[in-house]
Amino acid sequence: MDPFALFQFSVSAAQLNSSNLGALYITTATTYTENTIAVLLTLISILAVSIQVARGYFLRVLRKFTLRVAADIWWLIFVILRDASIFLMVFLGFMLFYPGTYQDFPIAVPVMPLSIDIFAIALVILLIKDTDEEPRWNNVITVLVGLGTMLYIFGTVFVTESAVQLAVLPPTVSASSSNLWGLFYNTMNSQLNPALSIYSFYLCFGILAICGVVAFIYGIRGSMPRNSIKTIPTPILKPTAEPAQAHPVQQAPATSQPPSSPQPVQPQAIQQQKATQPKVPISPGSETTASAPKPSSAKKPKQSKPLE
Predict the structure, then answer these.
(1) What whole-number percentage of the chain has pLDDT above 90?
(2) Are 37 and 95 in contact (CB under 8 A)?
């Protein structure tokens, strides 16, 4: 098989006869890569809409798990597939906004670039809103992803991979504008209609730029701490009066002496107490008499009233 047969739509006979084969190979490889990515985006869009529509199935299976780890992994798979497929549509689909790409291979304008804009709007909504907790916004995401997928598949089937490009046309296919296949291919083909291509670029690139600005502003505001967004200085005021207590505490009346302090003992009471204490004999050789042992400090004896 001729290796250049796949690229005859982008390489002319004059280029094949030229001596600059290096530039020819680069141009051929670039066109082949761009065409492959454009067709691959069709499969990614089908994955995105399939995961979004199957959200009810994921929730129904999620309730059957008895282990929390298994349920978390199952839900994590759903979130990764949904968000990653929508992000890849915008990331790889940015190739369709290069003006030079419109002449490399047939692109359905304006439906294929507009499909990327719809996926970009869905991605911004996922960034701003919690679609898992708000069913209304989840329905909006489902509608946007479904609409974007239908537009992209329509452009791929009727323009990029149209049956008109076949070497042998099927019985119901014709390249004339009177046929449905020929009408779509001749009207929306970026290589055959440069005026529509440039107007589609202005419209679709403007919508994509608006989505990018909204996402950028929201990302900056979301990364800033809440206290730094609004700082209101609060003046320090000295209290003029004591604030009222919620539960007032009753204070004991002030006394000249604390209640736990012992009362002073008069000297006469001390002498009378010594007279009433019995004397204990002591060992020989001692000239003094020992009194009874003193009581412990833990329990003091009851003191008698002083004599008047």
Answers:
(1) 34
(2) yes
Sign of torsion over alpha carbons 197, 200, 202, 206: negative
Alpha-helix runs per DSSP H in the chain: 13-16, 21-53, 55-62, 68-93, 111-128, 135-155, 180-188, 194-223, 226-229, 267-276
CA–CA separation, 35 vs 196, rounded Å?
Answer: 20
Interval 175-186: pLDDT, tens = 787 788 888 888
Overall average pLDDT of the 133-151 stretch:
93
Where are the domains positioned within the chain? 41-227
CA distance 78 to 36: 27
Gyration radius of the chain over CA positions = 47
Residues 200 and 112: beta-carbon distance below 8 Å? no
Q: Which of 149-158, 244-253, 296-305 has the highest mean pLDDT?
A: 149-158
Q: Please name which of 192, 186, 201 lies closest in space to residue 113, comparing C-alpha atoms.
A: 201
